[in-house]
Structure formats: structure tokens, C-alpha cells
């Protein structure tokens, strides 16, 4: 199987490339290095089944592949809001280009959509049938609406051109190889706790998220691509919900830190509650997350300690 991973040098993409190589795929990793890094895939470069292409998916590309895992898109609010117009182009034009490629070479294509399509949800937990509550003109819209259009494009290429599609909606995921300057809450809290700096909490910290460890999510992506029964969308994430304040306490405890919290103004349109209903994933993929936050967070902190060049005390 010749498999393209767009966004392959990113956090999830690099873990996925690794897993696919282990499973015996020929892997073509495509990235423009906007939020990904060469070092994430440096250890794969000499693998005989690995190929790396520097390319921006806003531009078309022709490749001979059987499967496309389409991940390319900045995922951290800090990154996707840095150049919002580019974020929309990546989601919309990039997905059109990847769907055009899938159509031409008859490849199966999987889109990594996001829980952000639910916006600031009025239904809790979120099921796939919920249409969401997104502010179309807010600062998160470049990502949320971009992904919503990407999902629409997937469905329309499927209905109109019979492209073989899969859509997953990923909820907050963390783990080793999240960039230390990624800007998402887990990396921010781990890095600050390790450095003994204040952990910045936006708003009152009572907003919730549900955090899945990267290995669990990669397993779900592989299963979603392999199964024949369901095109999606399917939620994948860990349904254990906690407040941002609770996450901050865990990060401080596991890092063995004496950091304090620094309360900051809330971020605009920050969703108040988020937790996936994963009944569909359990049924269709026979999948549920296995790695508890206590274990995953410790592994992530160990990785970040090494990245920061700190020694365990
Ligand atoms: P990431 O930022 O680490 O990875 C994204 C990768 O895409 C980066 O390597 C980046 O350089 C690349 N990229 C961005 N724009 C590109 C372009 N125009 N052309 C080519 N490459 C481009 O983020 P991630 O956490 O690994 O997320 C991967 C995918 O999963 C994204 O589609 C994201 O929306 C989705 N997702 C992630 C999470 C999460 O919590 N990690 C949650 C929901 C959805
Ligand atoms: N957050 C925070 N401090 C940080 C980064 C994020 O309090 O340094 C909060 C943020 O306001 C949000 C939650 O943590 O409520 C998750 O933020 P993240 O950027 O990781 O992802 P989101 O789920 O918002 O896309």
C-alpha cells in the first residue's frame, strides 16, 4: 500500500508515518513545515519505504498513491490564527487539491476534521449528529469553518464523484512531539511547570476539555481508514472530561513543580465544555482509548523535559 500523509511532519502526522511504516506501508510524507518540523521525522528519513516531499497543499500535486491521510492544517489556535486567510486556504483549497488527487488516482482519502466543528457546543457530550454552534465571523472561524467546508467538500466529492472517503472528528490530543512552542494547553502547562514558571490560565479555568493520548488517536485513524462499513464522520477522543484548572494541577504535580497559576483574560469564543460521545467509534471501529491521562501526561512531561534539556530532579 502506497500511502500519502499530508501534514506528515506535524505532531500527529509524524506518529502516523511511524505507525504506517511499521505496518509495512510505503509512506509519502508531504509537508510545508508551517507548524511541523523536520526533526519530527528525521529518524524515518533513511527508512527504505519513506519518502519526504516539501510541498504546500494549496498548490496541486500529482502522485501515485492508494491511500491519503489528509492531516495538513495548523491545529493550535496560536498557529491557525497567525495567518487566518492561509488557514482557510489550506483547509479549503488544500482539501480540494487532495480530493482531486484522490479522484484521479482512485485513492481512499481520510480527513482529520475536528471537534471544533461543534464550536461552543450547546449539546453535551457531542454526538456526530449535532450540527454545532460556530461563530462564523470570530477569530476561531478560519479553522472551524475551514474544517466544516473541508467536511462538506469530502461529502460532495463522495456524492458527486464517488470518491472513497473517511472523516474523523478528533478531540484534543496530546503527547510526545507536541512542539514546546505549540501554544496548546497541554504543551504550555507542561513546559511552564517544568521551567518553574507561572501556568497561564485563560478565563476562570472552569472550561473543560477531554484529552486523548496520541497513540490512541493513531490507532483510531488506522482503523477508520481500514474499515469498509462507515465513511463518517466519527468522533475520536477520550471522553474523560476535566477542567483546565484540574489539568493545571496535574501538570504541576507530575512535573514535581512549585509553579503557580496566573489567571489571564478569557480567549474569544473559547468553547466552555467539550467531551466526545464515542459510541459510534466503539461500534464501528471497535475502538476506545486505553491510555489514562495520568500515564500519558507523565510520558509527555518526560519528553518535554528532554526537549528542554532539563534533568529529572
Ligand atoms: P500540527 O500543526 O502539528 O500538524 C499539522 C501539519 O500540517 C504541520 O506539519 C504543518 O507544517 C502542516 N501544514 C500546515 N499547512 C500546510 C500546507 N498548506 N501544506 C502542507 N502542509 C501543511 O497539528 P496536529 O496536531 O498534528 O494536527 C494534525 C491534524 O489533525 C490537523 O488537520 C488538525 O486539524 C487535526 N486535529 C488535531 C487535533 C489535536 O488535538 N492534535 C484535534 C483535532 C483535529
Ligand atoms: N488554555 C489555557 N492556557 C494556555 C493555553 C490554553 O488556559 O496556555 C485554555 C484555552 O483557553 C482553552 C483550553 O485551554 O480553554 C484548550 O486550549 P487549546 O489551545 O489547547 O485548544 P482548544 O481546545 O481551545 O482548541
Can you describe this structure?
The protein is α/β, with parallel strands linked by helices and 313 residues long. It has a domain at 2-174 and 211-236: NAD(P)-binding Rossmann-like Domain (Rossmann fold, 3-Layer(aba) Sandwich). Helices cover 37% and strands 17% of the residues. It has nine helices and 13 strands. It has helices at 11-22, 77-80, 84-105, 141-161, 185-195, 214-226, 244-254, 279-285, 293-307, and strands at residues 2-6, 26-31, 50-54, 67-70, 108-114, 165-170, 173-174, 199-202, 208-210, 212-213, 234-236, 241-243, 261-264. The strands form four sheets. A seven-stranded parallel sheet has the order 3-2-1-4-5-6-11, sandwiched between helices. Strands 7-10 form a two-stranded parallel sheet. A two-stranded parallel ribbon has the order 8-13. Helix 3 (84-105) runs parallel beside helix 4 (141-161) and helix 5 packs parallel to helix 7 (244-254). The radius of gyration is 19 Å and the shape is globular. The N and C termini lie far apart (46 Å). The model has no long low-confidence stretch (mean pLDDT 96). Bound molecules: nicotinamide-adenine-dinucleotide and uridine-5'-diphosphate. Nicotinamide-adenine-dinucleotide binds next to helix 1, helix 3 and strand 5. Nicotinamide-adenine-dinucleotide is lined by residues 7, 9-13, 31-36, 56-58, 71-75, 79, 90, 94, 112, 114, 170, 172-173.
Amino acid at each position: 500500500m502506497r500511502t500519502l500523509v499530508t501534514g506528515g511532519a506535524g505532531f500527529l502526522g509524524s506518529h502516523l508515518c511511524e505507525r504506517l511504516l511499521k505496518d509495512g506501508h510505503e509512506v509519502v510524507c508531504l509537508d510545508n513545515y508551517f507548524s511541523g518540523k523536520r526533526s519530527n521525522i528525521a529518524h524515518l528519513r533513511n527508512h527504505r519505504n519513506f519518502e519526504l516531499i516539501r510541498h504546500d497543499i494549496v498548490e496541486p500535486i500529482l502522485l501515485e498513491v492508494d491511500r491519503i491521510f489528509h492531516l495538513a492544517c495548523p491545529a493550535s489556535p496560536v498557529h491557525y490564527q497567525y495567518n487566518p486567510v492561509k488557514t482557510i486556504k489550506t483547509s479549503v483549497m488544500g482539501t480540494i487539491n487532495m480530493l482531486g488527487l484522490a479522484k484521479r488516482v482512485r485513492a481512499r482519502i481520510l480527513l482529520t476534521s475536528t471537534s471544533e466543528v461543534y464550536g461552543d457546543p450547546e449539546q453535551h457530550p457531542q454526538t456526530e449528529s449535532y450540527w454545532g454552534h460556530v461563530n462564523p465571523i470570530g477569530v476561531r472561524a478560519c479553522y472551524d469553518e475551514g474544517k466544516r467546508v473541508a467536511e462538506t467538500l469530502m461529502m460532495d466529492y463522495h456524492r458527486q464523484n464517488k470518491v472513497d472517503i473517511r472523516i474523523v472528528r478528533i478531540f484534543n490530543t496530546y503527547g510526545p512531539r507536541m512542539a514546546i512552542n505549540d501554544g496548546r494547553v497541554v504543551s504550555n502547562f507542561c513546559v511552564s511547570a517544568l521551567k518553574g514558571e507561572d501556568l497561564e490560565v485563560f478565563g476562570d479555568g472552569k472550561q473543560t476539555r477531554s484529552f486523548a493520548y496520541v497513540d490512541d488517536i493513531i490507532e483510531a485513524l488506522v482503523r477508520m481508514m481500514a474499515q469498509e462499513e462507515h465513511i463518517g464522520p466519527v468522533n475520536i477522543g477520550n471522553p474523560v472530561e476535566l477542567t483546565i484548572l484540574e489539568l493545571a494541577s496535574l501538570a504541576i504535580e507530575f512535573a514535581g513543580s512549585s509553579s503557580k497559576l496566573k489567571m489571564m483574560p478569557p480567549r474569544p469564543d473559547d468553547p466552555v465544555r467539550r467531551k466526545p460521545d464515542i459510541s459510534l467509534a466503539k461500534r464501528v471501529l471497535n475502538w476506545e482509548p486505553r491510555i489514562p491521562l495520568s500515564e500519558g501526561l507523565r510520558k509527555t512531561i518526560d519528553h518535554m523535559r528532554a526537549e528542554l534539556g532539563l534533568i529529572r530532579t
